[in-house]
Write a structure and sequence with these properties.
nine-stranded mixed beta sheet, 14 helices, elongated, disordered N terminus, binds (2S)-amino(hydroxy)ethanoic acid, binds manganese (II) ion
C-alpha cells in the first residue's frame, strides 16, 4: 500500500493511564494535572522557540468555549438537536455575522476573500512575518451535528480570547479562519474554498458549481453578501492547525484524550447518471422496462462490494441519490447518484474507481440504460507536517493528556492547506464515533482538552515574545 499503514496499528500508542470516561465524562485527573516544568528549546530558530509561559498556566476557558459552541448551535437548527446550516444559506450568513461580532469584540481585524473565506487577524510583534492560521468551518450537513467544524473555528477564537486575557503577544500574527463550504453537500466538491486558497480549484470554476436546484455558488455567495475583495490564497502562511472531532470511534473506544493526525485518507466522488425510459409501472411488461432506479440499486450494491473487497481500510457508499420523476407509478427514467470511495492508499482509490466504472457499465448494458460518469470530487491522501505534528504531541504530553496517532477518515480543509503551509490536525473523541448525524455529541472536557493542545501548538509556532 502507498502509505505506511502501521500508524493505524493502535497497539503501541494507547496509554492506559489518563483515560477519559466517555459520555457522562467526569473530570479525569489529567484534565486538572498542572503542567510539568518547561525547558525552553534553542533560541536560534524562533519557529521552534518555546517560551516558559507555555509550560505554565496557558489554558483556554472551558466554559466560555462551550457557551460559544452552544450559542453558535442555535443558528440553523436541525430537527433533532443538531444543525442544518448549509453553505451559503441565510443561516450560514447569520453564523458568519455572529462569528464576526465575536472577533470584533476581541479587537481582531477581519478580512474576507473572494470565496467568502473569513480571516480574523491578531497582530504579532513582527508584522513582516506570515500568520499562523488556525480554523475550520461553520457550514454543516443538512442533518449535521453541533461540533463538526464549529469546534475548530471557536476553539481558535478561544485561543485569541485567552491570549488577550493573559496579555500575551506572539511574534507571528495569528489568523482565525472560517473556510467556506467545507462540507460540499450543497455545492460539490467538499473543502471547495480551501481548495481555491491552495490553488487546487480555479475561482471561476468554483463560482460555476451549482446545487440540486441549479443555483450557482457565485450567485449565492453574492446573495448572502459575503463576497470579499481579497484575493484567494497566494500569500505566505507560516503554518495551519485545525482542531476537529474525530467523527469515528477510535479515540472513544480506546479512551484516548487526543488524536494526533499524521495522515488523511483520499477520496473519489463519482457521480453516475443513468438514463432509462419512463413508463407505467402497472401496464408495462417487465421484460420491456428500462428502469434507471433498478440500475441505481444494483450499482449501489456494487459500490459496497468493491469497498469490502479492498478491506480493511477502503470504504464506499452512496449517500446522494435522485430519481426522476420520482412518482410511485412511473418507472424511473433517470437516476443521478454519487459514490463516495475513500482509502489511505491512492492506488486502492484508483482501483475502486476503475472497478466501479467497469461494473456499472456492464449493469447499464444489461438493463439497456445510458450511463454517464463525472468525477465530482477528488483528493489524494495527505501526510501532515512532521514538525507541526511533533508540536501537537509535545503539547499533549506537556498537558498530561493521553494521545495516539490517527489517520483522518474524513476530509478536512487542512488537507488542502497542507499543500501551501506546514499543517497538522488535532482530534477529540466523539460519542459513539457518530458524526454527520444530528445526534453528534462530545463532552465539554473533550473540547477543552483538545483546545488546550491546539492553544499550545499554535502559540509555540507563533512564538511568545513577552507579557504585555
Ligand atoms: O466528506 C468529508 O469527509 C467532510 O466531512 N466534508
Ligand atoms: Mn468537518
Ligand atoms: Mn462534515
Amino acid at each position: 500500500m502507498g502509505i505506511d499503514l502501521g500508524i493505524l496499528d493502535l497497539s503501541g500508542a494507547i496509554k492506559s493511564e489518563n483515560v477519559i470516561k466517555p459520555k457522562n465524562v467526569t473530570k479525569p485527573e489529567t484534565m486538572t494535572k498542572t503542567c510539568d516544568a518547561y525547558k525552553p528549546k534553542s533560541e536560534t530558530d524562533p519557529m521552534t522557540q518555546t517560551h516558559p509561559m507555555i509550560g505554565r498556566n496557558l489554558r483556554i476557558d472551558s466554559d466560555r468555549l462551550w457557551q460559544s459552541l452552544m450559542d453558535m448551535a442555535k443558528i440553523g437548527p436541525g430537527v433533532a438537536g443538531g444543525n442544518n446550516r448549509q453553505a451559503l444559506t441565510d443561516d450560514d450568513s447569520t453564523a458568519r455575522h455572529l462569528f464576526q461580532s465575536w472577533c470584533a469584540a476581541e479587537g481582531l481585524s477581519l478580512h474576507t476573500d473572494k470565496m467568502g473565506n473569513m480571516f480574523a487577524r491578531r497582530e504579532g510583534s513582527d508584522a513582516s512575518l506570515p500568520p499562523v492560521m488556525v480554523g475550520s468551518h461553520l457550514d454543516t450537513q443538512p442533518t449535521g451535528g453541533k461540533y463538526d467544524g464549529p469546534l475548530g473555528v471557536l476553539a481558535a477564537l478561544e485561543i485569541i480570547r485567552s491570549l488577550n486575557e493573559a496579555g500575551l503577544t506572539t511574534r507571528h500574527p495569528i489568523e482565525i479562519v472560517n473556510w467556506t463550504n467545507e462540507e460540499g453537500c450543497r455545492f460539490a466538491p467538499p473543502m471547495m474554498a480551501s481548495g481555491v486558497f491552495a490553488g487546487v480549484h480555479d475561482l471561476d470554476w468554483a463560482y460555476d458549481r451549482t446545487d440540486a436546484a441549479g443555483a450557482r455558488f457565485g450567485d449565492e455567495l453574492e446573495r448572502i453578501g459575503w463576497v470579499g475583495d481579497a484575493a484567494v490564497g497566494g500569500r505566505p502562511v507560516a503554518a495551519f492547525f485545525e482542531l476537529h472531532i474525530e467523527q469515528g470511534p477510535i479515540l472513544e473506544d480506546s479512551k484516548t484524550d487526543i488524536g494526533v493526525v499524521t495522515h488523511g485518507q483520499g477520496l473519489n466522488w463519482i457521480r453516475v447518471t443513468l438514463t432509462g425510459k419512463e413508463a407505467h409501472t402497472g401496464s408495462t411488461p417487465m421484460p420491456s422496462r428500462v428502469n434507471a432506479g433498478l440500475g441505481m440499486a444494483q450499482i449501489t450494491v456494487l459500490a459496497h462490494q468493491i469497498a469490502l473487497a479492498h478491506a480493511p481500510y477502503a470504504v464506499g457508499a452512496v449517500g446522494h441519490c435522485e430519481i426522476f420523476p420520482n412518482s410511485t407509478n412511473i418507472i424511473p427514467g433517470k437516476a443521478i447518484f454519487t459514490i463516495d470511495f475513500r482509502s489511505p492508499d491512492p492506488a486502492v482509490i484508483a482501483a475502486m474507481h476503475d472497478e466501479l466504472r467497469t461494473g456499472a457499465s456492464a449493469i447499464a448494458k444489461t438493463l439497456g440504460l445510458g450511463i454517464d460518469f463525472e468525477l465530482a470530487g477528488a483528493f489524494d491522501p495527505v501526510a501532515f507536517d512532521p514538525a507541526c505534528i511533533d508540536r501537537v504531541r509535545a503539547a499533549a504530553d506537556r498537558l498530561g493528556y493521553s494521545h495516539m496517532d490517527l489517520v483522518s477518515g474524513a476530509g478536512h480543509d487542512a488537507f488542502w492547506m497542507s499543500r501551501v503551509a506546514p499543517t497538522a490536525m488535532i482530534m477529540c473523541p466523539c460519542v459513539d464515533g457518530l458524526s454527520h448525524n444530528e445526534a453528534e455529541e462530545i463532552s465539554q472536557d473533550w473540547a477543552a482538552a483538545s483546545a488546550n493542545v491546539l492553544f499550545h501548538a499554535v502559540v509555540e509556532t507563533a512564538g511568545l515574545v513577552s507579557d504585555d
